[in-house]
Amino acid sequence: MSGSIQVRGLSRTFHTTVRRPGLAGALKSLIKPDRVAKEAVVDVSFDVAPGELLALLGPNGAGKSTTIKMLTGILTPTAGEARVAGVVPYEERERNARNIGAVFGQRTQLWWDLPVRESFAILRDIYEVPNAEHRARLGEFDDLLELSSFWDTRVRHLSLGQRVRCDLAAALLHDPQVVFLDEPTIGMDVVVKEQVREFLRHQVEERGRTVLLTTHDMTEVERLAERVVLINHGRLVLDGTLDEIRRKFGSTWQVRATLADPHARVEPLEGISLLRREGPQVVFGPDGPTAPTVHQALKQVIERYEVTDIAIDEADLEDVMRTAYVQAEAASSAQAEVPSGAPAGGD
Amino acid sequence: MAAVHAWRAARVTPLGELHSPPRMTAELLRMTVQVVLVASLWRGLYAASGTTAGLDRDQAVTYAVLATLALRVRNLDQFAGRDTVIQHMHFGTIVYWYLRPLAPQRYYALRALGEQLYGLVWALAGYAVCLAAGVVQPPKSAAVAGVFVLSALLGQWVMYYVMLVIDQLCFWTLRNGAAMLILIFAQNLLSGVYAPLWFFPDWFITMSGFLPFQATLSVPLSLYVGRIPLSDAGAQLLVQAAWVVALALFTRLLWRRAARRVISQGG
Ligand SMILES: Nc1ncnc2c1ncn2[C@@H]1O[C@H](COP(=O)(O)OP(=O)(O)O)[C@@H](O)[C@H]1O
Ligand SMILES: [Mg+2]
């Protein structure tokens, strides 16, 4: 069946008790606990087509993991609905489990005390994968991830990069149509990251798996995802292709200048914003619809500041996303201010 | 059914142990020292008096040594494999238990079965050595041996559930260390490991009758040494079976609640 993901108005509110400080506070909390509601995910809707890789992006605490947990079935939403390969995950967890594979970065599902290959064998049994198929798939994964050099090692002795590669293999051993990866490459070195990217690309393009990935690594997004969904404070901010995002959040160019005076005051110019500053190095980008062309901007910067070096290039995705986050932040705080500014009572 | 195909999960503990020879050496050493200490302690105690609490020296030594051996069945370093509920809750890896087409309770049961069978091999090896060395006495008759085996199996079954309840506590509190210590102590005391139960005052014996711990070790070992006559065995086996049923129902309830908790918190 098709490995599509449909998310409609998905919401999740957590209720937690806050602890009051001090002994008296602790006693008070015991008698009358202070319950606070935290809206981790609010009315999120999106679709992922079969065989598509979608990057779910957002700053820390945006609600990415919460969304993935609902889609894997280990968390029930407070409102809305989700379907993964035709199954409502939190209603039919075991059925959903056969269709999906999941890696929660930093959390391993491998058996700590056993050689990796034993873990693979246990999972093969749990998912009832025929022996020949299991061997063939392990061979395929080994070709891409070079597992055989360490798969006889006990998990406790693996490096992070080795372990995550094994975890990826473990999550895909039962040939799931849909794969959820929550920050899988966090903390890994560049070489391993590239290997993992290659592996994921292969899984999407050759095996037709649907992948939902969260990451903070924009290089990864750029190389892997055609489409991204951006959430912030639990709300969907944007759903589009990388090109759309680049267009929407301006930065189609950057001007990088090295200032002669590293302590000089730097302010945004007309239609030009300051993206970053590291000592004498400053990076400018376009600001809003009235932004000048990159050459006009270059001229303006040179006229305004004394620079020892200057270069132009297209903004990297990192900056685009930063702009997107900042704008989303501004939009949501503007929204939040409306009720307090509005006159109370009448409507 | 997935649980049948997943029998390999039962190999986790034995394999983990076989891959760490130092752990096995330590286990052997610990067992030897404990058996030697327990045996000489009870011999020493009996050197002064003859029969105490209706038990002669050889019976008492047999009881104490068998208790020591039996405890090895489920007393390995549970934390070494990072596959305990408390560790999964701590590391957040409990989510994987709920992400597989194998119910967590089935997985847990398979793991525990493997662990107990592995421990049984140790206990049996120790028993064979002790028997050959004359430290423990053989059972009085084939009937006693048969009833003992039956009772010991039921006892292990009860033990499994007791351990399970302790593990299940971790779904609600991340710190079950204290509960674990108290329960392990209570289990050791009440199941007659530190001293056979008949040495305790009556009120204590009555009280412990309401807890499952007698059913784990005290009953099978009492049957073995003849402190409980064969004529009473039926009733005792029934009590053990009742504990199995009661704890099975109780832990089932807890599993359901644990699942609800995980699903409402997201692991
Ligand atoms: N079990 C929980 N109980 C209470 N709050 C939670 C729980 N899980 C997540 N949250 C809160 O929900 C928000 C979203 O968290 P998460 O989905 O983990 O964000 P992300 O993965 O995008 O960094 C955070 O503010 C987090 O503190
Ligand atoms: Mg997260």
Automatic annotation (TrEMBL), chain A:
Q: Does the keyword Nucleotide-binding apply?
A: yes
Concerning InterPro entries, the annotation shows:
AAA+_ATPase (IPR003593), ABC_transporter-like_ATP-bd (IPR003439), ABC_transporter_ATP-binding (IPR050763), P-loop_NTPase (IPR027417)
Where in or outside the cell is it found? Answer: Cell membrane
Q: Does the keyword Nucleotide-binding apply?
A: yes
* GO biological process entries: response to antibiotic
Q: Which GO terms describe its cellular component?
A: plasma membrane
| Topological category with respect to the lipid bilayer | Peripheral membrane protein
The GO molecular function terms of this record are: ATP binding; ATP hydrolysis activity
For this entry, the protein name equals: ATP-binding cassette domain-containing protein
Q: Which organism is it from?
A: Streptomyces himalayensis subsp. himalayensis
UniProtKB/TrEMBL annotation, chain B:
Fetch the Pfam families from UniProt.
ABC2_membrane_6 (PF06182)
Entries under InterPro entries matching the protein: ABC-2_transporter-like
Q: Which residues form the signal peptide?
A: none
* Keyword Transmembrane set for record: yes
The regions listed as transmembrane in this protein's record are: 117-136, 142-166, 178-197, 237-255
Query: Sorted alphabetically, which keywords does the UniProt record give?
Result: Membrane, Transmembrane, Transmembrane helix
Q: Which domain of life is it from?
A: Bacteria
PANTHER family per record = SLR1174 PROTEIN, SLR1174 PROTEIN-RELATED
Q: What is this protein called?
A: ABC-2 family transporter protein
What is the species of this protein? Answer: Streptomyces himalayensis subsp. himalayensis
